[in-house]
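Protein modeling request. Please complete all fields; requests missing the sequence field cannot be processed.
Requester role: graduate student
Desired output: 3D structure, token encoding
Chains: 1
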Amino acid sequence: MRKAKRIKYAVCITTFVIVSALLLAALGTYIGGERAFDFALVRSETMYVCVTLAVILPLLIVAFIFVNLRRKTHITRISDTSAPEVQAGDVSDEPTPEKANNGERFPTLIKIDREKEKYERSDYDESITLKTLCENLRNYAANQKLYYDIEDIRRFIAGLSVSHIMILQGMSGTGKTSLAYVFGKYLDNPSTVIPVQPMWKERTDLLGYYNEFTKQFNETPLLEKMYEANYGKDIYVTVLDEMNIARVEYYFAEFLSMLEIPDAEKRYLTVVSSQWEKDPKLLKEGMIKLPDNMWFIGTANNDDSTFAISDKVYDRAMVMNLDNKAEPFIAAKERTVHITAERFNAMATAARKEYRMTKRNERRLEMLDKYMIEHFHVTFGNRIMTQIRKYIPVYVACGGEELNALDDILSKKVLRKIETQNPIYVKNAAEGFCRYLDDLFGDDKMPLCKQLMRRFEKNI
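Delivered output (460 residues):
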């Protein structure tokens, strides 16, 4: 490298020397050869000045290059003599990402390990009932200027008792996100709101990814809350805001599969493919346990900017429609409440024993199932029947009526499948189906189901 620079400088100096010599020769000829130049302009004083400058300028450039070259050579010699000798392969003094991070690629999760006592509370209310929970939650929301019908609160709580995934859908501005958020505030454990992005396609969009350059894991708020929830007993709420702006069955696929595993202790999601010595304590071979005390509540809009939610998601989730805003009312002041997820599940289990669905309604469901198969080729299925049997008792324990609960869950889980049938056939069969509901359950005892069927009929 140095040799090449010296050659360049030598060529430049030689060039300028030759040019200077030629110019000096030309000047001598010009001054001595008076007969060769008879024009007044050529013999003027201005021309003498120009020629003189043309001779001096190359000499100045040569001098500048020479001085600069000597200066750089001097600096190079100093740096060569002061630089310590480095053996080949010796990089012990260079900071590597692993050394810079002290071998910790999950700094936030490790911080949670150190502060785990913060999440191990003991001041829980073990005396609250499902009915009181619904009434107090409604009042607490009203204290925040958020008004909901008591029926919607009952559906919300009963739905959470059936599945760890709930979809809140309806018109914009009806309080879908607010309901999930105020529920977390009421439990004194604020909900984690995650705005879903249109380009999301896989698990790493929710949990984060390992950065090979920084040697650290890009931890997301969801990963942090999941890790924290594994230390605590509280109910944790994660809100997937505008969940269907991307395809839910893509980015949430592994969560759906894990939640299907009956044994909560075996629900593990892969975070990284290997384990480091200083990884967080609760990561097992690079996997994190999907906590049983965490619920996922997604808000969904149905417009041109969103994707249709697939049957795979709908079948596994509980669905709630918020189409109307409740009227404001004066509510009693309510404080936050501390209940464990275990206590919530225990209340639901007790309700299913106490308010088991009546045999009469069991027979009605069997008859309705046969009618649906015969006329629409749609059946309830084992999963939906299990959800119905879990949902109705808890709804009743929350203070509601059994037929209202049956009407609600049938309209969300069963009749929704009719929408995909032949539209002309559905239109012709809609009125007959509404009459059958009146005959089976009583006049106008199933308003939500009838309203949905007539909407199908009207939209065709």
